[in-house]
């Protein structure tokens, strides 16, 4: 059975996601869509030029929304990161909202009925808009959310204990933005709660928060965009969907309790969000989650 994936947006993130999918062997047919026809055609030719030296062959289709009809997954990377002059992802909201209506109309017209993964910022608000405008089930529309922020947390904590980031468990929750936070009660290393381990350390978890929260800004200031971290997060979600691995991931999904899309761990499989997790958070963390939900809803209406 062949796998078809569509990518809407061929900027720094879109072409990085495309590259990862091509070299990973996860995709057979790749649909690349962008308003900059010269750029998307150039990338398609560049990828085709690479095929003779790659392990996998991929058929590339350019700017054809009708080809999304039988796609398994569509990934949205549209955006204009240059608008984020202050590191506030909501600075992209009005621009991206204007792009959505013709795009979602085209997605609906194609007959697409797969899983929609959103990277576009502000990801929680844009994911919600995609779901509303396409009419796809809420479980089938999800965003990368704090999967990237969780990876940043694991990197920072792992360096403190000299372990692989994959040996750290725990979650960043809420908005992929200013109101996000690390739920330290969920973080473990060596299968021990971080709170227990830091008793013998000269630092405390709160000392790490700025590096985790503003890590993306450091990357942005250095090269004026981010791409590798978030692309890896998106491809991890793609893999979970295509293989029906039912992996626990902190993705942006609709939270009935809070009435908004935001990040919270869920089981991700072939049908998107297949099961929701109920974390045992501290009272302080519950309050931060509530505040994050309110911030997303307030800024989405602005």
TrEMBL record:
Residues 3-143 form the Lactate/malate dehydrogenase N-terminal domain. It holds the Pfam family Ldh_1_N. GO terms for molecular function: L-lactate dehydrogenase (NAD+) activity. CDD domains: HicDH_like. InterPro entries: L-lactate/malate_DH (IPR001557), L-lactate_DH_AS (IPR018177), Lactate/malate_DH_C (IPR022383), Lactate/malate_DH_N (IPR001236), Lactate_DH/Glyco_Ohase_4_C (IPR015955), NAD(P)-bd_dom_sf (IPR036291). The keyword Nucleus does not apply. Keywords: NAD, Oxidoreductase. GO terms for biological process: lactate metabolic process. Transmembrane segments: none annotated. NAD(+) binds at residues 9-14, 34, 96, 119-121. The active site is at residue 176. Residues 146-299 form the Lactate/malate dehydrogenase C-terminal domain. PANTHER family: L-2-HYDROXYCARBOXYLATE DEHYDROGENASE (NAD(P)(+)), L-LACTATE DEHYDROGENASE. Belongs to the LDH/MDH superfamily. LDH family. This is L-lactate dehydrogenase. It comes from Lactobacillus helsingborgensis.
């Amino acid at each position: 059975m062949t796998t078809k994936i569509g990518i809407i947006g061929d900027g720094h993130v879109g072409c990085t996601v495309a590259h990862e999918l091509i070299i990973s062997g996860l995709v057979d047919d790749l649909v690349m869509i962008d308003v900059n026809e010269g750029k998307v055609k150039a990338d398609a030719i560049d990828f085709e030029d690479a095929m003779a030296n790659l392990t996998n062959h991929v058929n590339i289709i350019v700017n054809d929304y009708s080809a999304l009809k039988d796609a398994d997954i569509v990934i949205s990377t549209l955006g204009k990161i240059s608008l984020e002059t202050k590191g506030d992802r909501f600075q992209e909201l009005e621009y991206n909202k204007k792009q959505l209506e013709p795009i979602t109309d085209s997605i609906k017209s194609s007959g697409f009925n797969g899983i929609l993964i959103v990277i576009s910022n502000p990801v929680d608000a844009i994911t919600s808009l995609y779901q509303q405008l396409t009419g796809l089930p809420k479980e089938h529309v999800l965003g990368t959310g704090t999967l990237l922020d969780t990876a940043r947390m694991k990197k920072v904590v792992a360096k403190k204990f000299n372990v692989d980031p994959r040996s750290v468990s725990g979650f960043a929750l809420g908005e992929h933005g200013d109101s996000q936070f690390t739920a330290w009660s969920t973080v473990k290393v060596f299968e021990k709660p971080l709170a227990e381990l830091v008793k013998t350390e000269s630092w405390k978890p709160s000392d790490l928060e700025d590096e985790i929260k503003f890590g993306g800004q450091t990357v942005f200031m250095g090269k004026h965009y981010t791409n590798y971290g978030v692309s890896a997060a998106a491809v991890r979600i793609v893999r979970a969907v295509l293989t029906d691995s039912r992996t626990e991931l902190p993705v942006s999904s609709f939270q009935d309790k809070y009435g908004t899309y935001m990040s919270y761990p869920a089981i991700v499989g072939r049908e998107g969000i297949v099961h929701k997790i109920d974390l045992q958070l501290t009272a302080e963390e519950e309050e931060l989650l509530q505040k994050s939900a309110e911030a997303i809803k307030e800024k989405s209406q602005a």
